Structure formats: structure tokens, C-alpha cells
Amino acid sequence: MGNDERIGVFYDGTWFAYVSDYYASVHPRAARVSLDGFHDALRWYVHTVTGRPLAECVVSEAHYVRGRIETPAVAFDAVLAAAGVVRHDLPLHGGKEKGVDVHLALEAWVRATSVPLRWVVLVTGDADFTPLAARLVAHGVRVVLPVVDGGLLAPAWMPRTAAPLRAAASATPAFEDLFAPADRADYPLRAPFVRTSGGWASAAGEPRGRRQGTVTGWKPGQAHGFITDIRGASWFVSGDDLPEGSKSLPVGTSVSFSGPSTPPVGHRYPRAYAVQLA
């Protein structure tokens, strides 16, 4: 492994959730991004760029950082674990994430310099990561920053990649360009997409079907709580949207619900409607 092209993938969890939503609900592929398949796409990219044997292009580190509400969704935790992704939970403060950029940047720097890594893939678009990217490049690490291709009109809720961060990275391949080789019949690695129930696009650009999740936050006496869906995204839920006769639900309750993945104007989280016990 000493001479391998070692790749580290570092996920800003909230940003990646929007990318996955974009592919599932807006993009013609109408499927969610597979973590295993994405990692293989990155291996193929490094193999193509360097000319090194595919077996020597390895994802040796993968980390996912996100603010999480009390009890994370077990199903999504299993997805992360199966893909070899280390989850880093940060507490929410007043329902908002704090410190994700600092934690992710520190993790990326420490792993890149200690493993060491030859490639760092930053799955984010936040300008706060610009100093990290610049410092890694100066240290001789290649920084890859996947971006959403402007060839397709992205929805208003899709976060854009900050220009300073683009400028600091070594390469900014479009997600679609990373995924395109898998469309060939002779592609030898895993597909970068997975189709899940409720994950195909409707004419309105939102998945059909009901979503699945777990109540992960509801304090006694409060009129609202939070649901974490099976991919780890957080949803606001009002007591008014619960089954008749219920004004709150215990943490850990499995539910199904509907609602667009776009947060209402002025709000951080999308809202769950028509909540039912699963």
C-alpha cells in the first residue's frame, strides 16, 4: 500500500444530502447516489488521470460530518458503515449546525498528513473550506472538488460551489463526468446510483411515494419535533401533522410521511406532512 494512490473522501453531510436529493428528484437519472459506487467512480477518475493500475487507486479514508438530532436514523447509519464511511456526529444548537466546517477541515488535514493521503475529495461547496484546500495543495495533496454541472438547470435549493473554493482546488470535475464512465458496458466497478422506493422523479420534480424515517427529537411539551429519514436528512414536524389524537411522538418511533425536500423559505429544514406510524 506504500505506493498506492490513497484517496480520502470527506463529506459535508448536509451538502451531500442535497446532491443526492438533486439526482433522485430532479436529474433524469432519478436515483440516489450510492456511496460505494461514488467511491469507485473516484477510483476510476484517479486511475484515468494518473494512468496507475486501478488496483492501486484506493479509497483508504471516508468521513461524514453532520449535525445530528439526538438519535440518528439506524438505516442510514448502516448505509454509511457498509460503505466504510466513519460518521462524526455534532450536536445541534438551537436546531442549527455549528462547527461542521471546523471538524471536517481538521479531520481532513490530520488524515491527509498522517496516513498520508495523495488525494483528498471534498464533498462540499462551502467557501469556509477554501483555506483547507489551499493548504492541502501547498502540502502536495491533490484536492478534488466535485461540482454540480451547470449543463442542467439545478433547482433553487441546490447549493452552489463557492468560487473561491473552486479556485483553490486542484480539480473540479462535474459529478456527472465522474458518473459517466459507469454508463459503459465494459465499466468494471459498481454503479454510482441506487434506486430506492419513492426515489423516482415526478413531473413536479419531487419523488413519488412516502418517505420513511424515525422520530429523533421531541421534547416534552413542545409542539414540534424532528424526524431523520433513512438517508440521514432531518425534517421538521409539527404536532398538527401527526395522526389524529397525537400531539407528539416518542423518540425512536418509526414513521412514514410526505413532503418536498426543499425547506420552506426562511427555514433550515424541510417539513414533514401527513405523518403516519410505520
Automatic annotation (TrEMBL):
Residues 210-277 form the CSD domain. PROSITE patterns: CSD_2. Pfam families: NYN. It comes from the Bacteria. InterPro entries: CSP_DNA-bd (IPR002059), NYN (IPR021139). Signal peptide: none annotated. GO terms for molecular function: nucleic acid binding; RNA nuclease activity. This is Uncharacterized LabA/DUF88 family protein. The lineage of its organism: Bacteria, Bacillati, Actinomycetota, Actinomycetes, Pseudonocardiales.
